[in-house]
Amino acid sequence: MMQTDVKSAIAKSTGLLVTMIPVRLKSITVTSATVSARNVSVCDPTAQKSGTYSRTNPSATITVTITNHGFVTGQRVFLDFTSGAGRDSAYTITKTGDDTFTCVDTGVISTTSGDVTAYSKIFLEVDTFNTIGLPIMIPGQGIYCPNGMFVGCGSSVTATVFYG
Q1: What is the reported pLDDT for 132?
Q2: Which contiguous run of DSSP H or E holds residue 104?
Q3: pTM for this structure?
Q4: 14 partner at 20 to 30 Å CA-CA among 30, 39, 59, 107?
Q5: Distance between CA 110 and CA 94 in Å, rounded?
Q6: Whole-angstrom Cα distance, residue 91 to residue 88?
Q7: DSSP letters of 114-156?
Q8: Mean pLDDT for the stretch of residues 79-108
């Protein structure tokens, strides 16, 4: 018998938001348009904070300023750069103050700054280096996402999510 309560959505850039509350992530297929490190993260859309960032050439260090961010060194955070030339991805951060943290960008190094949204609760993170679609089946009932889900895609990545 075919399961009829599963829906799908395609994210071609950061920002796909599934607002059905609650939802269970059943499967995801990730495809990169290039053979280099790319990232997709499925995050809790309610666990996000906004601020600003800057990166200067030739440094690969991104400095993020978010008032009372509450993050800790070593934490993985998905950064959605909403202006400037930052590269959307999940990063391991280093807390440098109550309002600041840094992370290292392995992409093209250039001077840039702008606005950023940090998602601190990542349900699933997928790294890909291949242009062939990578299907990931999640066993059992899937990953429980009580507040819906935000799908953050790195550049050149497409993610198809199946949820119910």
Answers
A1: 73
A2: strand 100-104
A3: 0.89
A4: 59
A5: 21
A6: 9
A7: EEEEEE--EEEEEEE--SS-EEEE--TT-EEEBTBEEEEE-TT
A8: 92
